[in-house]
Amino acid sequence: MNAGQKMLESAQALIKKTAQNLKLDEEKIKRLIEPEYIHEFALEVQMDDGQKKVFKGWRVQHNSALGPYKGGIRFHPETVRDEVQALATLMTIKCAVAGLPYGGGKGGVAVDPKILSKSELERLSREYAKKIANFIGEDIDVPAPDVNTNPQIIAWMIDEYQKIKGIKSPATFTGKPVSIGGSLGRNEATGRGGLFVLQALLEKRDLVSCLPQSKETGAIDVKLLSSSFQNITIAVQGFGNVGYYFAKLAYEAGFKIVALSDSRGGIYNEKGLDPIKVMEFKKKTGTVQDYKNSKNITNEELLELKVDVLVPAALENVISQKNAKNIQAKIILELANGPLTDEAFEFLKEKVIIIPDVLANSGGVTVSYLEWVQGKQGYWWGEKEVNQKLKEMIVRAFEAIWEKSITKKMSLKQAAFEVAIERIVSAMV
Ligand code: GLU
After folding, report:
1. Among 90, 146, 386, which is best to mutate for testing ligand 1, by the most ligand atoms less than 8 A from CB?
2. Which residue of 142, 202, 218, 373 is surrounded by the most CB atoms within 10 Å?
3. Domain limits at 370?
4. Which domain CATH number covers 207?
5. Are residues 58 and 198 in the same domain?
6. Residue 349 forms part of a structural domain
7. Is 325 among the catalytic positions?
8. What's the CA gap between 126 and 27, in Å, rounded?
Protein backbone atom coordinates (compact mmCIF):
# COMPACT_ATOMS: atom_id res chain seq x y z
CA MET A 1 0.00 0.00 0.00
CA ASN A 2 1.46 3.39 -0.91
CA ALA A 3 1.53 6.35 1.49
CA GLY A 4 -1.37 8.03 -0.32
CA GLN A 5 -3.61 4.99 0.04
CA LYS A 6 -2.69 4.72 3.70
CA MET A 7 -3.51 8.34 4.33
CA LEU A 8 -6.85 7.97 2.56
CA GLU A 9 -7.76 4.84 4.48
CA SER A 10 -6.97 6.44 7.81
CA ALA A 11 -8.95 9.63 7.06
CA GLN A 12 -11.93 7.56 5.94
CA ALA A 13 -11.68 5.20 8.94
CA LEU A 14 -11.72 8.11 11.36
CA ILE A 15 -14.73 9.69 9.66
CA LYS A 16 -16.54 6.35 9.77
CA LYS A 17 -15.75 5.76 13.42
CA THR A 18 -16.82 9.28 14.38
CA ALA A 19 -20.00 9.05 12.32
CA GLN A 20 -20.88 5.72 13.92
CA ASN A 21 -20.31 7.20 17.39
CA LEU A 22 -22.72 9.95 16.37
CA LYS A 23 -25.17 7.26 15.22
CA LEU A 24 -25.42 8.53 11.66
CA ASP A 25 -27.09 6.29 9.10
CA GLU A 26 -25.13 4.47 6.37
CA GLU A 27 -26.19 6.87 3.60
CA LYS A 28 -24.93 9.91 5.52
CA ILE A 29 -21.64 8.12 6.22
CA LYS A 30 -21.28 7.40 2.49
CA ARG A 31 -21.87 11.06 1.68
CA LEU A 32 -19.18 12.03 4.18
CA ILE A 33 -16.68 9.63 2.63
CA GLU A 34 -17.23 9.53 -1.12
CA PRO A 35 -15.87 12.52 -3.04
CA GLU A 36 -18.47 14.40 -5.10
CA TYR A 37 -16.06 14.68 -8.08
CA ILE A 38 -12.58 13.42 -8.96
CA HIS A 39 -11.01 15.17 -11.95
CA GLU A 40 -7.94 13.49 -13.37
CA PHE A 41 -5.96 14.80 -16.33
CA ALA A 42 -2.71 14.63 -18.28
CA LEU A 43 -0.84 17.93 -18.45
CA GLU A 44 1.21 18.35 -21.61
CA VAL A 45 3.99 20.81 -20.98
CA GLN A 46 6.64 22.10 -23.36
CA MET A 47 10.11 21.87 -21.81
CA ASP A 48 12.84 24.44 -22.52
CA ASP A 49 14.56 22.01 -24.93
CA GLY A 50 11.43 21.94 -27.10
CA GLN A 51 10.28 18.47 -26.04
CA LYS A 52 6.85 17.84 -24.57
CA LYS A 53 6.46 16.10 -21.24
CA VAL A 54 3.29 14.73 -19.69
CA PHE A 55 2.48 15.09 -15.99
CA LYS A 56 -0.50 13.65 -14.17
CA GLY A 57 -2.76 16.09 -12.34
CA TRP A 58 -5.87 15.96 -10.18
CA ARG A 59 -8.51 18.11 -8.55
CA VAL A 60 -10.69 16.31 -6.05
CA GLN A 61 -13.90 18.04 -4.94
CA HIS A 62 -14.79 16.11 -1.85
CA ASN A 63 -17.80 17.66 -0.15
CA SER A 64 -19.76 20.89 -0.58
CA ALA A 65 -22.37 20.69 2.19
CA LEU A 66 -21.02 23.77 3.95
CA GLY A 67 -20.10 25.80 0.85
CA PRO A 68 -17.75 25.93 -2.17
CA TYR A 69 -14.92 23.39 -2.26
CA LYS A 70 -11.76 24.90 -0.78
CA GLY A 71 -8.18 23.70 -0.75
CA GLY A 72 -4.69 24.04 -2.10
CA ILE A 73 -2.80 22.61 -5.07
CA ARG A 74 0.46 20.75 -4.46
CA PHE A 75 3.33 19.97 -6.81
CA HIS A 76 5.25 16.94 -5.57
CA PRO A 77 6.94 13.96 -7.27
CA GLU A 78 5.22 11.46 -4.97
CA THR A 79 1.73 12.87 -5.29
CA VAL A 80 -0.84 10.25 -6.33
CA ARG A 81 -4.60 10.32 -6.70
CA ASP A 82 -5.31 8.75 -3.32
CA GLU A 83 -3.17 11.31 -1.57
CA VAL A 84 -5.06 14.17 -3.23
CA GLN A 85 -8.35 12.52 -2.29
CA ALA A 86 -7.19 12.07 1.32
CA LEU A 87 -6.13 15.70 1.52
CA ALA A 88 -9.43 16.86 -0.03
CA THR A 89 -11.29 14.81 2.61
CA LEU A 90 -9.21 16.40 5.36
CA MET A 91 -9.98 19.86 3.92
CA THR A 92 -13.71 19.15 4.36
CA ILE A 93 -13.02 18.39 8.02
CA LYS A 94 -10.57 21.30 8.42
CA CYS A 95 -12.92 23.94 6.99
CA ALA A 96 -15.71 22.71 9.28
CA VAL A 97 -13.35 22.71 12.30
CA ALA A 98 -12.33 26.27 11.46
CA GLY A 99 -15.97 27.34 11.22
CA LEU A 100 -15.71 28.40 7.57
CA PRO A 101 -18.54 28.39 5.02
CA TYR A 102 -16.61 25.96 2.80
CA GLY A 103 -16.48 22.35 1.77
CA GLY A 104 -13.24 20.56 0.96
CA GLY A 105 -11.15 20.08 -2.16
CA LYS A 106 -7.52 19.58 -3.12
CA GLY A 107 -5.41 19.60 -6.26
CA GLY A 108 -2.10 18.04 -7.12
CA VAL A 109 0.42 17.38 -9.86
CA ALA A 110 2.97 14.54 -9.79
CA VAL A 111 6.07 16.60 -10.55
CA ASP A 112 9.30 17.66 -8.92
CA PRO A 113 9.11 21.44 -9.35
CA LYS A 114 12.66 21.86 -8.05
CA ILE A 115 14.10 20.54 -11.30
CA LEU A 116 11.96 22.75 -13.56
CA SER A 117 13.14 26.12 -14.89
CA LYS A 118 11.01 29.14 -14.07
CA SER A 119 9.44 29.17 -17.53
CA GLU A 120 8.69 25.43 -17.38
CA LEU A 121 7.04 25.95 -14.00
CA GLU A 122 4.98 28.79 -15.47
CA ARG A 123 3.82 26.65 -18.42
CA LEU A 124 2.91 23.79 -16.08
CA SER A 125 0.91 26.12 -13.78
CA ARG A 126 -0.94 27.65 -16.76
CA GLU A 127 -1.72 24.20 -18.15
CA TYR A 128 -3.12 23.13 -14.79
CA ALA A 129 -5.32 26.25 -14.63
CA LYS A 130 -6.60 25.46 -18.14
CA LYS A 131 -7.61 21.97 -17.05
CA ILE A 132 -9.57 23.12 -13.98
CA ALA A 133 -10.99 26.38 -15.38
CA ASN A 134 -14.38 24.95 -16.25
CA PHE A 135 -15.21 23.56 -12.85
CA ILE A 136 -13.85 26.15 -10.41
CA GLY A 137 -15.14 29.62 -9.51
CA GLU A 138 -15.57 31.92 -6.53
CA ASP A 139 -18.77 30.16 -5.42
CA ILE A 140 -17.89 26.70 -6.75
CA ASP A 141 -14.31 25.75 -5.91
CA VAL A 142 -11.60 28.13 -4.67
CA PRO A 143 -8.02 26.80 -5.01
CA ALA A 144 -4.97 28.07 -3.10
CA PRO A 145 -1.28 27.20 -2.60
CA ASP A 146 -0.06 24.04 -0.84
CA VAL A 147 3.26 22.13 -0.79
CA ASN A 148 5.72 23.64 -3.35
CA THR A 149 3.22 26.16 -4.74
CA ASN A 150 3.20 29.86 -3.89
CA PRO A 151 1.62 33.26 -4.72
CA GLN A 152 3.59 33.50 -8.00
CA ILE A 153 2.19 30.17 -9.19
CA ILE A 154 -1.31 31.26 -8.19
CA ALA A 155 -0.80 34.53 -10.15
CA TRP A 156 0.00 32.55 -13.33
CA MET A 157 -3.07 30.40 -12.78
CA ILE A 158 -5.32 33.44 -12.27
CA ASP A 159 -4.00 35.04 -15.45
CA GLU A 160 -4.71 31.87 -17.42
CA TYR A 161 -8.15 31.47 -15.85
CA GLN A 162 -9.04 35.05 -16.76
CA LYS A 163 -7.94 34.56 -20.36
CA ILE A 164 -10.14 31.48 -20.72
CA LYS A 165 -13.21 32.61 -18.81
CA GLY A 166 -13.02 36.37 -19.30
CA ILE A 167 -13.86 36.78 -15.61
CA LYS A 168 -11.77 39.09 -13.48
CA SER A 169 -12.77 38.06 -9.98
CA PRO A 170 -10.37 38.47 -7.07
CA ALA A 171 -12.16 35.67 -5.20
CA THR A 172 -11.58 32.71 -7.53
CA PHE A 173 -8.19 31.80 -6.04
CA THR A 174 -6.69 32.66 -2.65
CA GLY A 175 -3.05 32.94 -1.66
CA LYS A 176 -2.56 35.53 -4.41
CA PRO A 177 0.16 38.17 -4.35
CA VAL A 178 -1.09 41.25 -2.46
CA SER A 179 -0.68 43.35 -5.64
CA ILE A 180 -3.50 41.45 -7.37
CA GLY A 181 -5.95 41.18 -4.50
CA GLY A 182 -4.22 38.91 -1.99
CA SER A 183 -4.57 39.48 1.73
CA LEU A 184 -1.97 40.92 4.01
CA GLY A 185 -0.93 38.25 6.50
CA ARG A 186 -1.79 35.26 4.22
CA ASN A 187 1.82 34.14 3.81
CA GLU A 188 2.42 33.91 7.56
CA ALA A 189 -1.11 32.69 8.37
CA THR A 190 -0.53 28.94 8.83
CA GLY A 191 2.43 29.51 11.15
CA ARG A 192 0.70 32.34 12.99
CA GLY A 193 -2.49 30.29 13.45
CA GLY A 194 -0.45 27.36 14.81
CA LEU A 195 1.15 29.66 17.35
CA PHE A 196 -2.25 31.04 18.48
CA VAL A 197 -3.51 27.48 19.01
CA LEU A 198 -0.37 26.47 20.93
CA GLN A 199 -0.64 29.55 23.17
CA ALA A 200 -4.34 28.91 23.80
CA LEU A 201 -3.52 25.33 24.81
CA LEU A 202 -0.69 26.38 27.13
CA GLU A 203 -3.02 28.81 28.87
CA LYS A 204 -5.32 25.98 29.93
CA ARG A 205 -4.93 25.46 33.64
CA ASP A 206 -6.33 21.97 33.35
CA LEU A 207 -3.74 20.94 30.79
CA VAL A 208 -2.39 18.23 33.07
CA SER A 209 -5.75 16.58 33.61
CA CYS A 210 -6.23 15.86 29.94
CA LEU A 211 -3.14 13.68 30.00
CA PRO A 212 -4.03 10.88 32.39
CA GLN A 213 -0.58 9.37 32.56
CA SER A 214 1.21 12.61 33.09
CA LYS A 215 0.48 12.68 36.81
CA GLU A 216 2.62 9.63 37.40
CA THR A 217 5.20 10.10 34.68
CA GLY A 218 5.53 13.85 34.95
CA ALA A 219 5.16 14.03 31.19
CA ILE A 220 3.88 17.57 31.43
CA ASP A 221 6.19 19.89 33.28
CA VAL A 222 4.48 22.45 35.50
CA LYS A 223 6.58 25.14 33.91
CA LEU A 224 4.43 24.68 30.83
CA LEU A 225 1.56 26.08 32.82
CA SER A 226 3.23 29.37 33.55
CA SER A 227 2.08 32.33 31.53
CA SER A 228 5.61 33.05 30.33
CA PHE A 229 6.66 30.95 27.37
CA GLN A 230 10.36 31.68 27.73
CA ASN A 231 11.61 28.32 28.85
CA ILE A 232 9.49 26.26 26.56
CA THR A 233 11.68 24.51 24.01
CA ILE A 234 10.52 23.84 20.47
CA ALA A 235 11.89 21.80 17.56
CA VAL A 236 10.51 22.57 14.08
CA GLN A 237 10.84 20.16 11.17
CA GLY A 238 10.56 21.97 7.84
CA PHE A 239 11.69 25.48 6.95
CA GLY A 240 9.28 26.30 4.13
CA ASN A 241 6.53 28.87 4.33
CA VAL A 242 4.80 27.14 7.25
CA GLY A 243 7.76 26.04 9.39
CA TYR A 244 9.72 29.24 8.92
CA TYR A 245 6.94 31.64 9.90
CA PHE A 246 5.90 29.49 12.83
CA ALA A 247 9.50 29.41 14.12
CA LYS A 248 9.99 33.15 13.57
CA LEU A 249 6.75 34.15 15.29
CA ALA A 250 7.25 31.69 18.17
CA TYR A 251 10.77 33.05 18.66
CA GLU A 252 9.42 36.61 18.71
CA ALA A 253 6.78 35.53 21.27
CA GLY A 254 9.58 34.33 23.59
CA PHE A 255 9.69 30.57 22.95
CA LYS A 256 13.08 28.91 22.68
CA ILE A 257 13.61 27.35 19.24
CA VAL A 258 16.31 24.74 19.78
CA ALA A 259 16.15 22.86 16.48
CA LEU A 260 15.26 23.61 12.86
CA SER A 261 15.53 21.62 9.65
CA ASP A 262 14.93 21.64 5.91
CA SER A 263 14.80 18.78 3.40
CA ARG A 264 18.60 18.42 3.52
CA GLY A 265 18.92 18.10 7.32
CA GLY A 266 18.72 19.99 10.58
CA ILE A 267 20.57 21.94 13.26
CA TYR A 268 20.41 21.93 17.06
CA ASN A 269 21.48 24.47 19.65
CA GLU A 270 20.26 24.01 23.22
CA LYS A 271 20.74 27.73 23.90
CA GLY A 272 18.28 28.60 21.14
CA LEU A 273 18.32 29.67 17.49
CA ASP A 274 17.14 32.89 15.84
CA PRO A 275 15.07 31.71 12.81
CA ILE A 276 15.49 35.03 10.97
CA LYS A 277 19.29 34.72 11.07
CA VAL A 278 19.09 31.04 10.10
CA MET A 279 16.93 32.00 7.10
CA GLU A 280 19.50 34.62 6.01
CA PHE A 281 22.12 31.88 6.19
CA LYS A 282 19.97 29.40 4.26
CA LYS A 283 19.36 31.96 1.52
CA LYS A 284 23.13 32.15 0.97
CA THR A 285 24.04 28.49 1.30
CA GLY A 286 20.87 26.63 0.27
CA THR A 287 20.45 24.82 3.61
CA VAL A 288 20.25 25.41 7.37
CA GLN A 289 23.01 22.86 7.93
CA ASP A 290 26.43 24.04 9.16
CA TYR A 291 24.87 27.10 10.81
CA LYS A 292 27.25 28.66 13.35
CA ASN A 293 27.36 27.43 16.98
CA SER A 294 24.97 24.59 16.27
CA LYS A 295 25.24 20.87 15.78
CA ASN A 296 24.16 19.25 12.52
CA ILE A 297 21.44 16.65 13.04
CA THR A 298 19.28 14.59 10.69
CA ASN A 299 15.56 15.11 10.22
CA GLU A 300 14.97 11.83 12.07
CA GLU A 301 17.07 12.97 15.03
CA LEU A 302 15.16 16.23 15.23
CA LEU A 303 11.91 14.36 15.79
CA GLU A 304 13.38 12.44 18.71
CA LEU A 305 14.81 15.39 20.64
CA LYS A 306 13.88 15.98 24.26
CA VAL A 307 11.85 19.16 23.77
CA ASP A 308 8.58 20.47 25.15
CA VAL A 309 6.94 21.00 21.76
CA LEU A 310 7.62 19.17 18.52
CA VAL A 311 6.35 20.80 15.34
CA PRO A 312 6.39 18.64 12.20
CA ALA A 313 5.83 21.25 9.51
CA ALA A 314 6.96 19.46 6.36
CA LEU A 315 5.38 16.32 4.92
CA GLU A 316 3.07 13.51 5.96
CA ASN A 317 3.87 10.22 7.75
CA VAL A 318 7.17 11.37 9.30
CA ILE A 319 6.23 9.91 12.70
CA SER A 320 5.36 6.25 12.26
CA GLN A 321 5.54 2.91 14.04
CA LYS A 322 9.31 3.01 13.54
CA ASN A 323 10.09 6.12 15.58
CA ALA A 324 6.97 6.73 17.72
CA LYS A 325 8.52 5.06 20.77
CA ASN A 326 11.47 7.46 20.59
CA ILE A 327 9.39 10.64 20.68
CA GLN A 328 10.17 12.63 23.83
CA ALA A 329 8.13 15.80 23.27
CA LYS A 330 5.17 16.60 25.51
CA ILE A 331 3.15 18.35 22.85
CA ILE A 332 3.04 17.74 19.10
CA LEU A 333 1.66 20.58 16.97
CA GLU A 334 0.80 19.08 13.57
CA LEU A 335 1.54 21.93 11.18
CA ALA A 336 2.03 19.57 8.22
CA ASN A 337 -0.95 17.65 6.93
CA GLY A 338 -0.92 14.10 8.33
CA PRO A 339 2.60 13.98 9.88
CA LEU A 340 1.65 11.06 12.17
CA THR A 341 0.58 7.68 10.86
CA ASP A 342 -2.38 5.99 12.56
CA GLU A 343 -0.12 3.58 14.40
CA ALA A 344 2.01 6.42 15.72
CA PHE A 345 -1.08 8.34 16.80
CA GLU A 346 -2.49 5.34 18.68
CA PHE A 347 0.85 4.76 20.38
CA LEU A 348 1.35 8.39 21.41
CA LYS A 349 -2.13 9.65 22.18
CA GLU A 350 -2.03 8.79 25.91
CA LYS A 351 1.45 10.19 26.46
CA VAL A 352 1.57 13.32 24.36
CA ILE A 353 -0.91 16.11 23.67
CA ILE A 354 -1.36 16.02 19.91
CA ILE A 355 -2.87 19.13 18.36
CA PRO A 356 -4.33 17.68 15.14
CA ASP A 357 -3.52 19.11 11.70
CA VAL A 358 -7.14 19.97 10.95
CA LEU A 359 -6.96 22.50 13.78
CA ALA A 360 -3.23 23.28 14.10
CA ASN A 361 -2.71 24.32 10.47
CA SER A 362 -6.15 25.78 9.80
CA GLY A 363 -4.75 29.34 10.01
CA GLY A 364 -3.85 29.14 6.30
CA VAL A 365 -7.33 28.38 5.06
CA THR A 366 -8.83 30.77 7.62
CA VAL A 367 -6.89 33.69 6.14
CA SER A 368 -7.75 32.34 2.67
CA TYR A 369 -11.36 32.82 3.74
CA LEU A 370 -10.58 36.37 4.92
CA GLU A 371 -8.90 36.99 1.55
CA TRP A 372 -11.98 35.67 -0.27
CA VAL A 373 -14.28 37.91 1.80
CA GLN A 374 -12.10 40.94 1.05
CA GLY A 375 -12.07 40.07 -2.67
CA LYS A 376 -15.84 39.66 -2.79
CA GLN A 377 -16.52 42.96 -1.03
CA GLY A 378 -13.75 44.80 -2.90
CA TYR A 379 -12.40 46.28 0.31
CA TRP A 380 -9.10 45.24 1.87
CA TRP A 381 -8.15 45.32 5.55
CA GLY A 382 -4.86 46.24 7.19
CA GLU A 383 -2.60 43.45 8.44
CA LYS A 384 -3.44 44.04 12.10
CA GLU A 385 -7.11 43.59 11.38
CA VAL A 386 -6.49 40.36 9.45
CA ASN A 387 -4.32 38.94 12.24
CA GLN A 388 -6.88 39.92 14.87
CA LYS A 389 -9.67 38.19 12.97
CA LEU A 390 -7.49 35.10 12.50
CA LYS A 391 -6.82 35.00 16.24
CA GLU A 392 -10.50 35.29 17.15
CA MET A 393 -11.53 32.61 14.66
CA ILE A 394 -8.84 30.05 15.41
CA VAL A 395 -9.09 30.42 19.20
CA ARG A 396 -12.87 29.97 18.88
CA ALA A 397 -12.24 26.80 16.85
CA PHE A 398 -9.77 25.56 19.47
CA GLU A 399 -12.16 26.25 22.38
CA ALA A 400 -14.97 24.20 20.83
CA ILE A 401 -12.64 21.25 20.35
CA TRP A 402 -11.04 21.60 23.77
CA GLU A 403 -14.47 21.67 25.41
CA LYS A 404 -15.56 18.51 23.65
CA SER A 405 -12.31 16.73 24.38
CA ILE A 406 -12.59 17.49 28.10
CA THR A 407 -16.29 16.74 28.47
CA LYS A 408 -16.23 13.55 26.39
CA LYS A 409 -12.73 12.51 27.55
CA MET A 410 -11.44 12.03 24.03
CA SER A 411 -8.32 13.10 22.13
CA LEU A 412 -8.28 16.51 20.47
CA LYS A 413 -8.22 14.73 17.10
CA GLN A 414 -11.32 12.68 17.82
CA ALA A 415 -13.03 15.79 19.21
CA ALA A 416 -12.10 17.82 16.11
CA PHE A 417 -13.62 15.18 13.82
CA GLU A 418 -16.76 15.07 15.93
CA VAL A 419 -17.21 18.84 15.94
CA ALA A 420 -16.61 18.94 12.17
CA ILE A 421 -18.95 16.07 11.29
CA GLU A 422 -21.75 17.50 13.41
CA ARG A 423 -21.43 20.79 11.54
CA ILE A 424 -21.27 19.16 8.08
CA VAL A 425 -24.21 16.87 8.74
CA SER A 426 -26.33 19.73 10.04
CA ALA A 427 -25.90 21.37 6.61
CA MET A 428 -26.75 18.26 4.58
CA VAL A 429 -30.19 18.42 3.07
N1 GLU B 1 -3.03 24.35 1.55
C2 GLU B 1 -3.52 24.87 2.78
C3 GLU B 1 -4.13 23.77 3.64
O4 GLU B 1 -3.83 22.60 3.48
C5 GLU B 1 -4.44 26.07 2.57
C6 GLU B 1 -5.67 25.79 1.78
C7 GLU B 1 -6.44 27.05 1.38
O8 GLU B 1 -6.06 28.13 1.77
O9 GLU B 1 -7.43 26.88 0.67
O10 GLU B 1 -4.86 24.03 4.54
Report:
1. 146
2. 142
3. 183-429
4. 3.40.50.720
5. no
6. yes
7. no
8. 39
120 in the same domain as 204: no
On whether residue 26 sits in a domain, the answer given is no
Pocket probe for ligand 1: among 61, 359, 368, 370, the residue whose CB has the most ligand atoms within 8 Å is 368
Ligand 1 near 72 CB (within 6 A): yes
Residue 23 lies in a domain: no
Residues 203 and 223: their CA atoms lie apart, in Å, by: 11
Task: Based on the fold, state whether residues 223 and 153 are members of the same structural domain.
Answer: no
Q: Tell whether ligand 1 has an atom less than 6 A from the beta carbon of residue 92.
A: no
Closest atom of ligand 1 to 369 CA is 8
Q: Give the H or E element holding residue 27.
A: helix 26-33
Question: Quick one: 303 and 196 in the same domain?
Answer: yes
Bridge-based pairing of strands 256-262 and 233-237 is parallel
Per-residue pLDDT of the chain (429 residues; tens, 9 = 90+): 888 898 999 999 999 999 999 999 999 999 999 999 999 999 999 999 999 999 999 999 999 999 999 999 999 999 999 999 999 999 999 999 999 999 999 999 999 999 999 999 999 999 999 999 999 999 999 999 999 999 999 999 999 999 999 988 899 999 999 999 999 999 999 999 999 999 999 988 655 444 434 443 333 444 444 445 668 999 999 999 999 999 999 999 999 999 999 999 999 999 999 999 999 999 999 999 999 999 999 999 999 999 999 999 998 899 999 999 999 999 999 999 999 999 999 999 999 999 999 999 999 999 999 999 999 999 999 999 999 999 999 999 999 999 999 999 999 999 999 999 999 999 998
Of 6, 70, 94, 106, which is the active-site residue? Answer: 106
